[in-house]
Amino acid sequence: MHKRHLTARRAGFHISALALAIAITPLWAAEENATEHVSVVGQAASLDQALKEQRRSDSVESVVHADGVAQLPDQNAAEALQRLPGVSVERDQGEGRFVSVRGLGPDLNAVTINGTLVPSPESDRRAVALDVLPAELVQSLTVVKTLTPDMDANSLGGTIEVESLSAFDHKGLFYTGSTEASYDDNTEQTSPKFSGAVSDRFSLGDGTDNFGVAAAMSWQERDFGSDNAETGGAWDFEDGARLERLEQRDYDITRERSGLGLNFDYQADDYSSYYLRTLYSRFKDTETRNAAGVEFADAQQPGESGDAEGWRELKDREETQEVQSYVLGGERLMGQWTLNAQAGYSESSQDTPGHIAGATFEGNDDFADAGFGDTKKPRLNIGDDFYNPSNFSLDEVEWAEEDTTDTEKNIKLDLARDYDLAGHAAQVKFGGKLSRRDKDNDTDIWTYEDLGDYGLTDEQLSMDQFTKGQVDYSLDRFGPGLSASSIEGLIGGLDRSEFYNEEESRVNDFDMSEDINAAYLMHTLDIDDLRIIAGMRYEGTEFEAKGTGIRDGDYEAIEAKSDYHHWLPGLHARYQLDKNTQLRAAITNSVVRPTFGQLAPGFVIDGDEASFGNPTLDPLESRNFDLGIEHYLGRAGVVSAFVFYKDIENFVYNADLAGTGDWIDFSEANTFANGDNAKLWGLELAYSQKFDWLAAPWNGLLLGANATFSRSDASISGYDADSGSTLERDIDLPFQSDTVGNLMLGWENDKLSLRLSANYKSDYLYEVASIDDKQHDLHVDDQVFVDFSAGYFLTKELQLKFEAQNLTDESYYVYAGNRSYNAQYEEYGPTYKLGLTFTHF
């Protein structure tokens, strides 16, 4: 990295440099005497570079670097981050998507690309699903856990900083290209992937190598799927544990990722530098879901049987998410003053064109002698009639379109001056930032029902007319699948205006804006072996939401506004105990706005029942304490321990306000409310070491481990209709795992590199049920993922790579109340990859 861009690419405390070894695909030189090549490629080399940055940093951070061939270790950014201490990921269809930090859910963390915030393409969230970012476009991923006053204060767990490739990351001409094939064991599908990157420096004017251009691209199409058995938590616990309904689901998915990054760096002279960072990513997800289910006439225990209603359902949709980011900035040295300026524009969108959101076929009659076995992975026990399509008829088709856009524009200015204070080095820094964010959602829904009233015969509506082969479902017998094209052909002949669902369409539409004005002042002072950073940040927020509600059949336009102000002091300290040991401490404050789904202005009121968003919610506020020690163990070695504590106010939870305030006469009023406070505390441990002092071949051994142990305490309240009073109960913070850990064993020499790694995440609270019904809270069970990777240099520039992911065939399991009772069980199977990478330095 060019020295003039150190401020643009801020160094941080990489507490888990060992996690870098876990995360980076091992690479090493092909020739025994290739000393220069070894300096930029390999587990130990990348790890050592991270540790050098750690020793200079001012914040507590964890980092993953791309390796010497500009490759992150996993197929998307989220999976690369899961190796870091305190970091866990939410998985969708077996792939890592959303990132949690220190037990705080993804919506409570922020994501930036090249210094500018990334908005979310999903209509109801702030969290950014990092699988939209191909790993090849990313040079480094950093999780900042303690925020200095010059940083946005919009994260409780951490801010995830994404940096894309720069020409100053390499010396001279650099290019690389990769091709890969991956095999999904569950669907027996093979999928291709291609990626590449190139960078070079040029001499402009009187400068030498002062202008850099870097470009990276990636394309992948992955065919895979999963098998699912779920109850949704539909257990009756009043008379034992009896199941009310059961559904089987088969997913067939194609995901196409493509991305392009183009970056420019210009060193005008010894005092001025400028940069332009651009990134575009496209994520196209095509999903076909066949479902078959029953609802028992009387709730049953395993082994019992009775009458049940049956159904078949198809969902078929194509969804495209796009992320664009453009950042223009520069730095100017003016004597003792340093001026930094940056303007950023980011846009995320999600386009879901017209699709079958749900086509439901109901059984013509009840099915007799229906039952199930096993409460954890339930299997349906039912007669052959359930698998005969002539026993089902089309009941309803929901056709939907949705378009969401989220844009963020910002401009910021930072001014710093170095000076001497009583013989000690000091710096004063101040600046400001203006941020303007707009999010809108447009949904249209058509509900095709009562089709017999429109001239369609029983024969035309029979499921016989819409089948498409047998579903490949590994968990149980399933029967025939459904044809999307046949269903589309049927409803295509009807007048769609007759079926427009105005209520569902209008209530889900919204337009929200969020304007944030920020300013800060901070001071840095070095007193011998002690560095102190103290400062204050101000953030003022203006929020506006527009939407539509429906009250007993009548539509109402809704507009809500709010503004609030926060003064956020911060204090950081770093003390050098000896040459290889230092202490760190931080007291910080942060503020996070509720999700857009929670703030949504739309509502539905029908008689004495209501459901609505809450645009008047207060933001979440947190005071954070961090204290830790780190000791370096030579090249690529570190051992560290950190404790942290967070005192959180105004956390948001699902609430039923019936019987209180404006909802005193309602039996149901489901919305979101602020809790009083919550607490989170924990311990992070990390260790890594390269045993290069041992005799060969043991001198190629690397060992890494990290673990985070945390606990949380929160309380919620709600109205209990039976007692007519307000109740309270204690809960864990949603998405908070008590234990997250990684273990890595690696080995490398000049040609061969091996890595075996394991990632563990304990169970966590996923969804809170009603205030008096703890048994129906949903929890995600613990998971262990084991991966293996190997790399071998066929020549100095050509490497053969092999990876095996999810070797233990770990499943995804959600339970209601305790582990014995299924809410959702899903299997994915392992994935195997084989690829070639050519690199020129």
UniProtKB/TrEMBL annotation:
Keyword Kinase in annotation: no
Subcellular location: Cell outer membrane
PROSITE patterns: TONB_DEPENDENT_REC_3 (PS52016)
Keywords assigned by UniProt, alphabetized: Cell outer membrane, Membrane, Receptor, Signal, TonB box, Transmembrane, Transmembrane beta strand, Transport
Domain TonB-dependent receptor plug: 55-159
Record carries keyword rRNA processing: no
Gene3D superfamilies: TonB-dependent receptor, beta-barrel domain, TonB-dependent receptor, plug domain
Stored SUPFAM superfamilies: Porins
Membrane-topology descriptor: Multi-pass membrane protein
Any one annotated GO CC term: cell outer membrane
CDD domains (alphabetical): ligand_gated_channel (cd01347)
Main location: membrane
First and last residue of the signal peptide: 1-29
Annotated TonB-dependent receptor-like beta-barrel domain residues: 365-807
Family: Belongs to the TonB-dependent receptor family.
Name the record gives this protein: TonB-dependent receptor
